[in-house]
Amino acid sequence: MIDIRSDTVTGPTEAMRKAMANAEVGDDVYGDDPTVNRLEKMGAEILDKEASLFVPSGTFGNQLALFTWCPRGTEVILGEECHIIQHEAGAASVIAGVQTRPISAPDGVLRPAALLERLRKAELHYPATSLICLENAHSLGRAVPVEAMDEVRDLAGQWGLPVHLDGARLFNAAAALKREAREIAARADSVMFCLSKGLCAPVGSLLAGKREFVEAARFKRKIMGGGMRQAGILAAAGIIALEDQAGRLREDHGRARFLEKELAAIPGITLSPGDINMVYFSFPPAEDPKIAGGITEFFLKQNIRINGPERGIFRFVTHHWIGDAEIKTILEASQEAFGEQFSKKAAP
User: Fold this and answer.
1) Taking residues 302-330, what's their average pLDDT?
2) In the CATH hierarchy, which fold is given to the domain comprising 2-245?
3) pLDDT tens per residue across span 235-247
4) pTM of the full predicted structure?
5) Per-residue model confidence (pLDDT) at position 139
């Protein structure tokens, strides 16, 4: 089965499975799991941060950052299409007790003028801004230039505010921008990045920053139920992810750009340009729910799993387990589905 719904579907590599089976473990809540400690040290060094903390997921890491940075009843500024707003189940209001105030940022860039319109000091009627959140790579497939991040960081400094970076696909952004991950991370006070997704580990993310922040987050992680005891079994896969997988992400990007080029040649498809391992495109007939369902079912019969369109947009995601042969099969199915099977069914 070819699965291009997301890079979250990646199973662990054989090297990861062996490392997990042989991992040296302790009790991470006591701080004596040597494999977790090694992973956390490695993650901090890669990002040039003082410390990092192993957490179960990207959502957990983002919400832990908000919980650690933000006093209850304050306000967080972030892009309206970012993952924290769109795909984290409203957790900011439940866990950190904060209000989110989004900015229109369809390309993932938070522009200073828009930020200035929303930044607030505490007043009788208003909550004070306590944090600005950035996302890179953006969940819509774009890598945000570091110059745009610098503008946000400069403005945050003027207001005495910290900046948190949702770097779930940080290493994809680094590959696309031809930068080191630490260069992107330098623009934020805290950074979360996933070990799963393109890096292929089955579970886990890291939250990094200054040592004082990470120790405060460690306490809040306990409150959230994130003390995982013999977590070295999971951390072992994360170590392999950092050692083996970060350097090959350009292969996924190259296949995504090839897929874009070939899909663009199919009449009726409109591509949204991407930078990382994601291909976004619209196909107007799929605005009909019946046709959309028929398309996903057609692909499934070809042993290809895809998600249905979201607001009229399809997303195909390349990853470690999608090679050239799989791309060929995906294109053949796409040419039949979008070029023949369903292209005329929306006509009145």
Assistant:
1) 96
2) Aspartate Aminotransferase; domain 2 (3.40.640)
3) 999 999 999 999 9
4) 0.96
5) 87
For 2-21, b where at least 16 C-beta lie within 10 A, e where not — what string?
bbbebbeebebbebbeebbe
Amino acid 106: pLDDT? 86
Distance between CA atoms of residues 130 and 159, nearest Å = 10
What is the predicted pLDDT for the residue at 240? 98
Residue 148 has pLDDT above 90, yes or no: yes
Alpha-carbon torsion 53, 241, 319, 191, what sign?
positive
Parse the chain into domains and list their residue ranges.
Answer: 2-245, 248-341
Rounded alpha-carbon distances, angstroms, from residue 68 to 109, 156, 179, 192, 348: 24, 17, 28, 13, 55
Over residues 310-329, mean pLDDT? 96
The predicted pLDDT at position 260 comes to: 97
Question: What is residue 345's predicted lDDT score, i.e. its pLDDT?
Answer: 55
Amino acid letter, 243 = E
pLDDT higher than 60, residue 60: yes
Can you name the residues that pair with 163 across neighbouring β-strands? 132
- The CATH class, in words, for 248-341 is alpha beta
